[in-house]
Amino acid sequence: MSARAHRIKVREVVSETADAVSLIFDVPADLSGRFAYAPGQFLTVRVPSERTGSVARCYSLSSSPHCDDRPAVTVKRTAGGYASNWLCDNVSAGSILTVLEPAGNFSPRSLDRDFLLCAAGSGITPIMSIAKSALATGRGRVVVLYANRDRASIIFERQLRELTRRYPRRLVVLHWLESERGLPGTQGLATMLRPYRKYDVFLCGPQGFATVTTRALAYLRVPARAIHREEYRSLTDNPFERPVAVAPSELSDGAPPRREEPAVTANGTGTVRVEIDGSTHTLPWPRDRKLLDVLLDNGIDAPYVCRESACGTCVCRVRDGRTRMIMNEALIDEEIAMGLTLACQTLPESDDVRIVFDQ
Ligand SMILES: Cc1cc2nc3c(=O)[nH]c(=O)nc-3n(C[C@H](O)[C@H](O)[C@H](O)COP(=O)(O)OP(=O)(O)OC[C@H]3O[C@@H](n4cnc5c(N)ncnc54)[C@H](O)[C@@H]3O)c2cc1C
C-alpha cells in the first residue's frame, strides 16, 4: 500500500441530516504535516468489502484548515450505494479508517477574493470549507448558492445561518429548494446569480446541477476560466490495492478520450527527470507511456487516486521539455499555462523532460 495511506482514528461522528454524517478525525501529531490541507481538498477513504477486499471513495473535507481544529469529511448516503452507506452505518467514535493524505486542486489560489460558491446536496462539503476559510482569512464577499430537495436535506443549515449572522456584510446564502421552486433552471439561476457574475466561481454537485449552473453562468458571460468544477463520482480504480501496471495498449483501447487526439505511436524513448518527496529520479520515458504509469512501474510512490484525470491528485509541474495530456477534467487553462499537468494523462512530446511534484 502507498506510504501516503494512514490508519486514522475517527474522534466523533456528527449526524448532520437524516442521511448525512460528518466524520471528525483525530490525526496524530506526527502526521499533522502530511494531513495539512487546503480548503476544497478531499480525503480518500478505504472501505472494506467482502466482495473486493476494499473500495476507495473520495470525500471532500468539510472542515476549514483556518477555523477547525480537526479535519472532517461529510458523507451523504447514496441510494443503492455501497461505501457511503457502509460509512454511515458502521463508523463510530473510535473507529479506525485507512485514509490517503489530502489531495485535489479544487482550491482557490488566494482566499482574498470575491467568491460565488455553488453547491447541490453533498456538494456543499468543499464549498463549506472554502466559505469558512475565505470569511476567516480574506476580505472579499462570499455568496453561497445551495440547491436541495427540501429543507430537511440542507446540510450545515445551522452553521450557514450562524456564518451569515457573523458576517452580515460579506456572506449571502441563497437556498434553492426543489420542494418550493422545482428543479433549478438556467433562467432562474441566471437571474439569481447575475449580481455575482464577476466573482470567482467554485461549483460542486451532481452532473445535472453542474450542467444547468454552467449554462446559467455562460448566459451571464462568465468566462469558463473563472469556473472551477468538482465532480462527484465513485472511483473505478483502487489506490489502496497494489497498483496494476497499465499496458501500453491501454492507451488505445481504454476509456475513449474526450477530444480527438492524434494516434499515439511508440516512436522511441526519451528521458524524464522527476523531483518528488525530496528525491530526484532519472528514468526512461517511452513516448506511449503515461507518466504516472512510468513512475509506479519504477516503484516511485507518486500520489494518485482516480487515474481518470478527474481528481487532480497526481498534479505536477513540467519544468523543462514538452508534454501533452490525453484527457483533462481537473485543470483549468490558467493552470495548464502555468505548466501544471496530470501525471495520469501525460505523455512526453520532447526527448528530455523535467517534472516536479511541488503542488
Ligand atoms: C473529489 C470527490 C469528492 C467527493 N466528496 C464527497 C463528499 O464530500 N460527500 C459525499 O457524500 N460524497 C462525495 N463524493 C462522492 C463519493 O466519493 C462517492 O462517489 C459516493 O459516496 C457514492 O459512493 P457509494 O459507494 O455509496 O455509491 P456507488 O459508487 O454508487 O456504489 C455502487 C458501486 O459499488 C459497488 N459495490 C456494491 N457493493 C459492493 C461490495 N459489497 N463490495 C465492493 N463494491 C461494491 C458496485 O459495483 C458499484 O460500482 C466525492 C467524490 C469525489 C470524486
What does this structure look like?
It contains 9 helices and 18 strands. The protein is of the alpha/beta class and 359 residues long. The protein has a 6-stranded antiparallel beta sheet with strand order 4-3-6-1-2-5, with helices on one face. α5 packs across α6. The longest helix has 14 residues, at 124-137. The chain is globular, with a radius of gyration of 21 Å. The relative contact order is 0.12. Mean pLDDT is 91; it is low at 244-266. The chain binds flavin-adenine dinucleotide (FAD). The site of flavin-adenine dinucleotide has 27 residues, from β3, β4, β5 and α1. Flavin-adenine dinucleotide binds next to β3, β4, β5 and α1.
Question: Largest beta sheet: what is the strand line-up?
Answer: 4-3-6-1-2-5
Radius of gyration: 21 Å
Oligomer: single chain
Estimate the mean pLDDT confidence: 91
The number of distinct β-strands equals 18
What structural category do the secondary elements indicate?
alpha/beta
Q: Could you tell me the strand content as a percent range?
A: 25-35%
Order of helices and strands: EEEEEHEEHEHEHHEHEHEEHEEHEEE
Poorly predicted tracts of residues: 244-266
Helical residue percent band = 10-25%
Biggest beta-sheet profile: 6 strands, antiparallel
Figure out the total of helices: 9
